[in-house]
Amino acid sequence: MKRSAIFLLILVLPALLFAGSPQGYYRFPALTSDKIIFTAEGDLWRVDLSGGMAQRLTSHLGGETNAAVSPDGKLVAFSAQYEGPTEVYTMPVEGGFPTRKTFDGETAIVVGWTPDGRIIYQSTHYSTLPNRQLLTINLRTGVTELLPLSQASDGSFDEKGSTLFFTRLPFQGSHTKRYKGGTAQNIWKYELGKPEAIPLTSDFPGTSKTPMVWNKRVYFASDRDGTMNLWSMSEDGKDLKQHTFHKGWDAKSPSLRSGKIAYQIGADIHVFDIAGNADRLVSIALSSDFDQEREKWVKKPADYLTATNVSANGDRVVLTARGQVFVAPAQQGRLVRATTRSKVRYRSAQFMPDGKSLLVLSDETGELEFWKVPANGVGDPEQLTNDGNVFRFDGLPSPNGKWIVFDDKNQKLWLYNIDEKKMTQIGSSEFDGFGGFNWSPDSKWIAFVQYAENQYPQIKLYHLTDGKSIVLTRDRVDSYNPVWSSDGKWIYFLSDRFFQSLVGSPWGARQPEPFFDKTTKIYSISLRKDGRSPFLPTDELVAAPTEEKDKEKEKDKKKEADDQKKEKTNDVIIDLEGIQDRVTEVPVPASRYRELTMNDKNLFWTESDVSLNSKSKLVALEIKNKDIASKTLVEDVSGYELSRDGKKLMVQKSGDIYVIDASTSPPSDIPKSKV
């Protein structure tokens, strides 16, 4: 056999041997001279640098993570929970008894080692969020020393140990791609003894983190090309170079030793050789029984629900769970799995108005896009949008099924035309996102909530025809949750305008603050100048005419109105002049109201009390001007939704789903309404 063929076989053989072996999910790799120590199944493992069958080093039920190997290669420092809180421990690289090194009582995360053999770790023990700080532990004396930086989450020293390159700010908690917000991580340089640190990556508003020093260069992870990859720069932040070019999967938890960088990609570990400019996948197998992957019976599937929605007539509900979508009948019928692509995550499925298809958010393309999915599970999904580059929130289709309104993580409000496949930005906010979307019956107006400059939520209207926005409520109080009446003449909403403190006086031994437990009331606003609240009692202004000529006049007016109605469409007409002054109260006492909806006869909402174990109830109120009193429909609910036709209510209670009639009469036997 030729020498080249033997060499090729040596390279390929390990991959062939372990190709069918059990594989795990590998995180937090750390390098020795010839080994990789990493976390899998919550434990530390060790494997040859070339790959192969890994050996388990720890077995505690808690997690052992963030390993870092000492400069002499003899010890591994890691974070673990042997005694409860996450603290710093050390053990021999070959395995052995772990020794606790910190007693902070806070989450202590190992970052690395100094060149002279001290452990570097991060903690909030001496600060408050988001000001994580770096500390060092002298293993010989046990002394812990706080580095003089108010914000530092990870970092490494140069070869001399005189300059620290560190990441300012910790991970901000969101895995949203290409984050460029105010807590984006960035790299700074601090020379010991100098009065202050200096930024090195201020040229880029995105994320740059985990600096590692080698041969006068700083290697780090950054999403400058849209995906987190390995980059490097000179020690003064110049001469930027990109070393890996992954797309989609981010490079995580890089660790450098002797010119090699081990890092996580997806569920795997890669090693990048700096001198050879070569990147390779390390084939690793675990000698484990993989107990966590055994089949198990789920006793309460509802625990995995992330979204629910009821069909237009209440005959079905759509359920989103673990990234897949299912349609269940309200009573008898077939349970349908509407999505079958297991490698795609679907979010927030809801019925389109026709009931034949579902609107979902899908990450099939790598970005969040809107798709239509057949509700009966037959046929392929149809992609609607194709321009996603930021996290999108749930969309709401219009009653005629031609439009979708939604907002995104950039705090922009969008309108999508399904027929023309056209996207239009209709709003933006500097303060917060949008919410409370509600379509008018004619699909030509959108009611929504936007925060004013003083941070009070206001209700606004957007007209599709002329593209104008109208401010419906003032910015002096919180107003939210707008809903349209079925005739398009009224908008009902919730507003916090009632302030009566349960604490009568600020004086006394403990000087209590004012406490407002019931601040919310229900209000309505007439969209017509001559609108009269249906809750107002009858008086002489609306009494029926008694004289014969008045009867004839009313008859003529009715005929004229009927003729006009036949000639016109059912467009919603809004008289803008003085609209903010046409607010009236719904005559129910102030309380803690949420989730207001309505049909042509009743208002519905949830109401909760103030207690340590606060519970919500579903309440209904008939729209009339006599004997006005709300009625409790269902106690102890976690949510509900009114069907589009206003005839059914989907109620969530104790982990189960029920579909009941949308009336003011409590269901006589709610278990029979269980989905």
Structure notes:
The chain has 675 residues and is mostly beta strands. Helix content is 5%, strand content 41%. The strands form 13 sheets. The chain has a five-stranded mixed β-sheet. A four-stranded antiparallel β-sheet has the order 5-6-7-8, with no helix packed on it. The chain has a four-stranded antiparallel β-sheet with strand order 9-10-11-12, with no helix packed on it. The N and C termini lie far apart (69 Å).
List the helices and strands and how they pair.
Blueprint: H1 3-18, E1 27-31, E2 35-40, E3 43-48, E4 52-56, E5 65-69, E6 75-80, E7 87-92, E8 99-100, E9 109-113, E10 119-123, E11 133-137, E12 144-146, E13 154-157, E14 163-168, E15 186-191, E16 198-199, E17 208-214, E18 217-222, E19 229-234, E20 241-242, E21 251-257, E22 260-265, E23 268-273, E24 278-282, E25 284-286, E26 305-310, E27 316-321, E28 324-329, E29 336-337, E30 346-351, E31 357-362, E32 369-374, E33 382-383, E34 396-397, E35 403-407, E36 412-417, E37 422-428, E38 435-439, E39 445-451, E40 457-463, E41 469-471, E42 478-484, E43 490-496, E44 520-526, H2 548-567, E45 583-585, E46 593-598, E47 602-608, E48 616-622, E49 631-637, E50 639-642, E51 648-653, E52 656-661
Parallel strand pairs: 4-25
Antiparallel strand pairs: 1-2, 2-3, 3-4, 5-6, 6-7, 7-8, 9-10, 10-11, 11-12, 13-14, 14-15, 15-16, 17-18, 18-19, 19-20, 21-22, 22-23, 23-24, 26-27, 27-28, 28-29, 30-31, 31-32, 32-33, 34-35, 35-36, 36-37, 38-39, 39-40, 40-41, 42-43, 43-44, 44-45, 46-47, 47-48, 48-49, 50-51, 51-52
